Amino acid sequence: MTDTRILFIGDVVGRAGRTALEEYLPELTESARPDVVIVNGENAAGGFGITEAIFESFMDLGVDCVTLGNHSFDQREALVFIDRHERLIRPLNMPSGVPGRGVAMIEARNDARVLVINGMGRIFMQPIDDPFAALADEIASCPLGSGADAIFVDFHAEATSEKQAVGNFLDGRVSAVVGTHTHVPTADHRILPNGTAYMTDAGMTGDYDSIIGMDKEEPVSRFLTGLTRGRFEAASGAGTVSGVIVDVDERTGLAIRIEPVRMGPWLNETTPSR
Prior knowledge:
Layout: E1 4-9, H1 14-32, E2 36-40, H2 52-60, E3 65-67, H3 78-81, E4 88-89, E5 103-107, E6 113-120, H4 131-141, E7 150-156, H5 160-169, E8 176-180, E9 190-191, E10 197-199, H6 217-225, E11 241-248, E12 255-263
Parallel strand pairs: 1-2, 2-3, 3-4, 6-7, 7-8, 8-10
Antiparallel strand pairs: 1-11, 5-6, 9-10, 11-12
C-alpha cells in the first residue's frame, strides 16, 4: 500500500453541477490519480436533494462515495432507495429511525481502507442530534490505524465556528475534515497541529454566476422586498468544479498535503498533478 490520495468534490448543484462533473472529473482523475473519489450530491437534483438515477450516474463516472446533508430527503424517493446503496450516506447524527447510514468503508484503489463519515452541524440548521458525540462514537468504533487506514469527514454546516470546532475536536483522530453547505470555497486549507487536513468549505460544483447556485432574480427580490415571488431555481450556466485533494500518509493515516481544486470558467482553472 502507498500513500492515499483522496479527491473530494463539493456540493453538486443542479444540472450545471452535474454537467461540470461529467466534463471535468475524467480529466481530474487522469491528472491527479486519486485513490478515492467522494462527491457531495445533496443539491444534485435541481438544487434540492438527489435521485437514484443521479446517484447511479455519479457511480458510473467513477465516484466511490456520495455524501449528503440537510437536503438529503428533499426528493422523497430517497427515503426508499438510500437503503439500497451503501455508498450513499446521509449525516450520521440524524435522529434514530431516519433511513440510510452515516458512514461508508471504501476500499481504495491502492487497497487502503478509507472510512467516509458524513456529519451535520446544528447552528442555523434544522434540529439534529449532537454531531460531536456522534462523530466521537463512530471514530471510537473504527479508529484510525486499527479500524481504517484513512478517515475522511464531510461536515455539512452553516457556521464557520462550528466547522472549525469539529476540525480541532477531531485533529489527530481523522485524516481530514472538510466542510460543505455554504457553496462558497474558503481559502483556509491547511493541516492542523496534530495532522488532520482541514478546510472550512470546499465550495460548490455548479454555476458561479448565481447566488449560491440559484438563479439570481428570486434571491435578490426576497432580500429587497421580504416577499417570496417564486421558487428558487438552480442556475443553468456553465459550471465549475470545486473541491479539495488530500494526501494521507500510509504509516500514520494523517494528512501530509491538502490542495484546493478549481476547474471551470468562474474560478481559476487548476489541474493538480500527482
